[in-house]
Amino acid sequence: MILNPRPADAATAAHDRVYRALRGRIMQGDLPPGEGLTLRGIGRDYEVSMTPAREAVRRLVAEGALTMSTSGRVSTPELSNERIEELAALRALIEVELASRALPRAHMALIERMQTINASIAEAVAHRDAASYIRTNLEFHRTLYLRAQAPAMLAMAETVWLQMGPTMR
Predict the structure, then answer these.
(1) φ, ψ for residue 74 (rounded to 5)?
(2) pTM for this one?
């Protein structure tokens, strides 16, 4: 007997879409520290009901990208200097290892791609475009680290980037 695969759950797809969009915005510093968010506002912005918005927020709170007060207020975290220093040190540890694993696997196409991204970074700096700088800098690092073939380490690095996101600007 052949079973038909279950169709994709629309609520799960909506939750994942909202999660990824908010995650990207936070990681890239689009939301400043202390920025308050509401489920209603998220739902409106991403054209979803409260349920996918709530699920996306729960995931981001669990990852440390958002905070939720005891009263239910959701916001981007305001990091202390000590917390920023801790995340920067963690980033340095993980990223050195990722780069060390990636470089022996580098090839000309990767090097050319990274040169292109680096030129975009230089252009963003020249134009004083913080949003483009952050986005392309993350792209540069992620492009290199994918070659490390260390998905757990890359996931950890992205979690650190996510937690630092609101302070990036």
Answers:
(1) -105, 135
(2) 0.81
